[in-house]
Write a structure and sequence with these properties.
98 residues, alpha+beta, Aminopeptidase, 26% helix, 35% strand
């Protein structure tokens, strides 16, 4: 599997995690909106066709969960991909709303 570098870009109201994969030009992304001080809403995960099946979306989902734990945030999953990932990872239930 290629090396994945994930960076966070955020403003007061929204943000996105951008995954750059070594050897590929197109990044993948996971976007969210803030809903108050302690809640973020994951609303979209986009992975280009060239990166599908390489675990990039799963890496983005795991990163947002890890960061939410570190920052004391809860995640409301509106994105169908993220919601499916959360169902596969019951250990995320401490930060992901069911």
């Amino acid at each position: 599997m290629a090396e994945i570098t994930i960076t966070l870009e955020e403003s007061e109201t929204k943000g996105r995690y951008v995954a750059q994969v070594a050897g590929f030009d197109e990044p993948a992304e996971l976007t969210f909106s803030r809903a108050g001080q302690t809640m973020i809403i994951v609303d979209h995960t986009g992975v280009p066709d060239s990166l599908r099946g390489q675990g990039v979306g799963a890496a983005l989902a795991a990163k947002v969960v890890a960061d939410a734990r570190d920052k004391g945030l809860r995640i409301m999953p509106l994105c169908p991909f993220f919601k499916a990932q959360a169902q596969r990872h019951p250990e995320w239930s401490d930060v992901v709303q069911g």
